[in-house]
Every structure is written in structure tokens, then in C-alpha cells.
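Data availability (excerpt). The following record was deposited with the supplementary files.
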Amino acid sequence: MNQDPRDRFDDDEPYRAGPDDDTGGEPVGDSPAAPAGLAPQRSRRIYILPNAFTTANLFCGFYAIVQAMNGRFEIAAIALFVAMLLDSLDGRVARLTNTQSAFGEQYDSLSDMLSFGAAPALIVYEWALQPLGKWGWLAAFVYVAGAALRLARFNTNIGVVDKRFFQGLPSPAAAALIAGLVWIATDLRQTRWIEATGHDLAWPAFVLTVYAGLSMISNAPFYSFKDINLKRSVPFVFVIGIVLLFVLVSSDPPIVLFSLFLAYGLSGYVLWFWRWRTGRESPWKREPEA
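Predicted structure:
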């Protein structure tokens, strides 16, 4: 199944025009035409609106690092969730306003590396992994390297991946696992449900950090929700379901969000195992031979 790159413009994955795009390989927006036989050129212009969302994403990632260094881990975790929301908007805004550009593409990838790569690793290291010494910072490095490789692999795999699935755990979802653990443990300690500090949870944090880092570079297929048509009419019950979802999340954000992302973080391996048992092919296309 051919990949539509614009449908993959989500989370840590910037939009990139290509020969498989439904533009037929023509330049997007006001991009200049490319000579015959060469790839279409991307616009070199810089647009305010989508890059403003990307800058806000970058700010939240940096703010989370600062708050973690100051020992305010709950605020740091919340800042990462805000960064995820902003990251999900910049690409959609660029598509809707036809303001995609090569600058925005690179800027988005670099921002994601900070917000969903470096920031979660530093936060969990400061919160829990530091007492483990060498094993602590090695676990944090595994996560950072996983995020970097995850972004690099996507940027070179346009047209190879089935748009219904992410190849490996998306970096925002991986960051949500780390931020969710920090947030839920901090919140439960503040409400006197538990007395354990981050240092007391060092080994569980170690396992989750390594798991998230390796999952980003795995071949496990994680559902992307890209085949859901948001423009299609739905029964009234779906609207009620959306209301109930907001109520559920608002009832206890740390527990609900962490539970949702933990289930999503395991779903790829469940789907992978099911495909293997049923003999189904991998959702990844083979790369064309030279």
C-alpha cells in the first residue's frame, strides 16, 4: 500500500512531498518547479503560523528540562503533554493553510528531538535514575538514541511504511510513558496514596525508559489512526463518546493518560504477535531494489 506522506504528518513525523504523493511529484504550495528527472523542490520560505506551533512545542520541551532541574517534576511532566498537543497541531495547520516548507520540516524534527528525546530522558534521570549511577545515565542514553534513530528512520522511509501503522513506537507516545510515570507517581505521593519517591522507583523507571527507547526503533506496528475519516458523518452516539472521553480524562488526568499510553505502548507488540501467529505479512513494504 502506497504511503501518503501528508497523512503521516503527525506526532514526530514532518510532512515531506515525494513521488508517491497525490500531487504526482509536483511541487507543493509555492515550491519552485524542479528540472526534469529531479525530485520536486520544497519551498524555502518561512511561514509564521505553523512554525509558531513548532516553536511553542520547542519551548515546552525546554521548559520541562528547566523545571526538572529545579525539582518541579510534576510541572515538567505536564509541559511534555502540552508539547505533544502542540506537535499534533503544527503539521495540520501547515496542511490546512498550504504553508509546508523545507524549513518547517527540519525545524519540526529538531524540536521533536528536544521535546520528546532529550527532555524526557533528562527528566527521568533527575527524578529517578541518578542513584543508579552508570546504569541510570546509560538507560537515559538508550532512550535519547532511540528517539534520534526513530526520527532519522522515518525521514528516510517515506513511501515504505503503510500509513495505517507507525513503524515503532512514535516518540511523543514514548515521551508520554516517561512523563506519565513521573506525573502519576508525583501526584499519588502528594495525595498521600504512596510514600515512594522517584529514587525509590529507580528500577521500574529504568525498565520503562529502556523499553520506550527500544520500542521506538523496533519494527512493531503501532496503529496510527490515519485511516479514520474525520470528515465523514457519524452517529450521535459518537459525540456522546467524545464527551465521556473528556470526562474520563478530566476525572484524574495522570492515571487516565498514563493508562492510555501504557496500553498503546503495549498494543504494537500484541498486534505484531497476532500478525505472526496468523501468518500475515508485515505492514512495511520492501524497499525497491536498485
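Summary of structural features: The CA atoms of residues 116 and 171 lie 6 Å apart.
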